[in-house]
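User: My advisor, Dr. K., asked me to get a structural model of this assembly before our group meeting. I'm new to this, so sorry if the format is off. These are the inputs:
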Amino acid sequence: MRGFYIGRFQPYHNGHQHMVEAISDEVDELVLGIGSAGDSHTPRNPFTAGERVMMLTKSLAEFDLTTYVVPIEDLDRNSVWVSHVQSMSPKFDVAYSNNPLVIQLFEEAGVEVRRSPMFRREVLEGTELRQRMIDDGDWENLVPEPVAGVIEEIGGVDRIQHVADSDSNGAGDD
Amino acid sequence: MRGFYIGRFQPYHNGHQHMVEAISDEVDELVLGIGSAGDSHTPRNPFTAGERVMMLTKSLAEFDLTTYVVPIEDLDRNSVWVSHVQSMSPKFDVAYSNNPLVIQLFEEAGVEVRRSPMFRREVLEGTELRQRMIDDGDWENLVPEPVAGVIEEIGGVDRIQHVADSDSNGAGDD
Amino acid sequence: MRGFYIGRFQPYHNGHQHMVEAISDEVDELVLGIGSAGDSHTPRNPFTAGERVMMLTKSLAEFDLTTYVVPIEDLDRNSVWVSHVQSMSPKFDVAYSNNPLVIQLFEEAGVEVRRSPMFRREVLEGTELRQRMIDDGDWENLVPEPVAGVIEEIGGVDRIQHVADSDSNGAGDD
Amino acid sequence: MRGFYIGRFQPYHNGHQHMVEAISDEVDELVLGIGSAGDSHTPRNPFTAGERVMMLTKSLAEFDLTTYVVPIEDLDRNSVWVSHVQSMSPKFDVAYSNNPLVIQLFEEAGVEVRRSPMFRREVLEGTELRQRMIDDGDWENLVPEPVAGVIEEIGGVDRIQHVADSDSNGAGDD
Amino acid sequence: MRGFYIGRFQPYHNGHQHMVEAISDEVDELVLGIGSAGDSHTPRNPFTAGERVMMLTKSLAEFDLTTYVVPIEDLDRNSVWVSHVQSMSPKFDVAYSNNPLVIQLFEEAGVEVRRSPMFRREVLEGTELRQRMIDDGDWENLVPEPVAGVIEEIGGVDRIQHVADSDSNGAGDD
Amino acid sequence: MRGFYIGRFQPYHNGHQHMVEAISDEVDELVLGIGSAGDSHTPRNPFTAGERVMMLTKSLAEFDLTTYVVPIEDLDRNSVWVSHVQSMSPKFDVAYSNNPLVIQLFEEAGVEVRRSPMFRREVLEGTELRQRMIDDGDWENLVPEPVAGVIEEIGGVDRIQHVADSDSNGAGDD
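Assistant: The format is fine. Below is the predicted structure of the whole assembly, which you can bring to the meeting.
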């Protein structure tokens, strides 16, 4: 059985890693969809899709599980979102999410969804993590080791600190 | 004479129905433009364009008026909005609106606009109506009977309650 | 039962009208989807969506059938096309088409499709009809009377003759 | 040496004019990029790209400097923003900006950026200026004379006052 | 009076220069719209908008005429094309074109269009010019001197020769 | 060192597999970019991005090489194509391509490109392979075994045969 787990992974952190570990007991293969793939360089979405692909692929290597990492660009139309995801991903049997909108869309399309209380914690951890980066706090112990390596290599902390100082949402909107 | 009346119709309710009744005294034919046609599955825009087409068409049947119901997708560029609307709609002589931006755009393009104090009430009613659906309150008596039927058929109350629980604006942005 | 019949309807002609007549024996309600709604002012797609809405609505009045006329803009992505169509249209039970791609997409999505040998003839008639307009030939007897009226009102013959003289596909591409 | 200076210029005012004067000491030629070129008719972005082209071109005539005025539409993807700007502009050697995101994007792309304390003042002046227009206050002395002429010619004060009364961000979203 | 003259200007050549000279007798100011601004790096559209801005601005310096050079990205929708152009350009009174589609669109929108037999020659010259570049033929004497300088500076001949060797229309479509 | 190799992989075949084998001698890690990721269900682009992700991931398992498989949607603007690719991919040091446009774009952006005579053969093989599928010929021996499995599982031969019968390029354009 193949599962599908979507997130923005900005960045991929220990909460995500624990979720994958839990899901790995239930599926043979797992697709990880990187949402909002086109977004980057903002305080909420600091990393590019390519940078996130690297974080995930390196962190997933420790599991004995066939994984697929797929960037998914926004289509900004909820009514076709499931079809869009399905066209970008290897066919999957079950989706993992705790986001009410994602659940509603998958269920209207007849896709089985499994929830987990761990999801909510992840969201909080993502926000906390980015804030610590901005504040020069301690964040390295909240992410798998390869993620810390990627962020260091690309100058990720500098980047999020710089753009957090911006009062605009896009470069064309200054 | 043909009139044009645009709204998001999320959902079509009694306030809209009264407006159409009032307009029907002034025109021979009426085009109803369904704005933000691509939006759905959010608390503010719960219904798809197709669902709204059905609500309007069935509710308009009671009037002795030739009507056209036209979904209009957003183009996100105010300067070409009037041309976009005109290309999607049968040619019209007068537009009905109370939205200051819509009025400004039509008037700059040389289209006659008629205002009505009823418009403002409609907007309030739409917000009130959606909140009642979310709160499991009494909403059926605020909409024409065929609209209640459509909403029941598609599980509309469940949908808006589920997505209202979401803290995100789009499925790709969870 | 509700059926769905899609075409570009450039313009709506007698072949389409005969198809609708045939379909009307099989369904209670019929949705007519106007494909490539954003295209206009080319030799192959001379008329705007709004002009085509008017042609169809007026021609369908002679049938005792509840109809919905829905412009559908291109999304240029086959994998989400069915979802896009479904979001723009009242829910339908069966689709009518003879286009192999449309059939394939609907069938992969689990939608029943009915074919008809009349479809092929329509396509030929559409091409023939536009050529006659360009050549100032006799075309009025190939379309329902209201369509001839719309085309005359908008100066449609002049338009197609002028743009047919262009060697470009878009105004920005001269 | 050719410089690049980007802004929304809604409208072009004395703060911008002083910046150009200061930059003119450092460069031989200057490209002025009009950001968010597709936005107009909102309280924050009242003027079209074309109207802003006219404001800038006429105001720049007083400098003895070769200038290029280039509207730049938003691409809504920070990761390709620098390439987009570079493709729309004559090749430049140095960019002038105080926007942290713009600086970050240019620097990641290896483009030299020069900052100026004058920038921050400009942003404040733009907001103040638009508010004065809305409030029928005194604004003419905050802009170069040709800008006041353009705004008067296009009925700009009326426009911003009308759309400021709107509680929506787009005509399709009423 | 202000005129508007649109072309792709790939590249700007002597035929264009003669047209501008002729138009300069009829107008006080002239807007030059650079069409298909987003296209580049193909045999038919080798140069970026920014490169073309530079070619035009430098070539126009010899005329005693106020000119505006405005890149215009394609919108791929003929029905809103005139509005799009008008929003990107300073307001103009008359358009110059010999392209039947452009003429039709402007005239349907009520804009006066002036034709010139020189236009057709230009188109032929553009094609001929690009072919000579590809074939390493003599092309420098067909363009104003500043254009030859720009093309040399950016390695334009190398570029068109390289991409002409490609059997694909886009980098993503190889 | 990390390499980047882009193709449409419609489908992934033995020629691609040999290229990867050859490249694997030169790099430590390899990113495979799936171009035109949004295209599917046409004779030239029969498979979705997700289907191609599965083909590649399963075929690459036999190599002792860290690989990343990244779908890349078209952006239809050559001037920003390199930035787009770079944002979707883990950072790479060298690109492998024989497509003249791809080479030109990467080289203008300062990216090292390596060519191989094997590339041309691949393109021919892709066309040949799809034709054999359409003609019910022998194709299985031209692809790695896992690819044949994927194509069988999704009914790929039926699909390409059906859409090859279509005379249109898109469902909305019938």
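One thing worth pointing out at the meeting: Helices of chain D lie at 14-23, 49-60, 78-88, 100-108, 118-134, 145-153, 156-164.

User: Perfect, thanks a lot.
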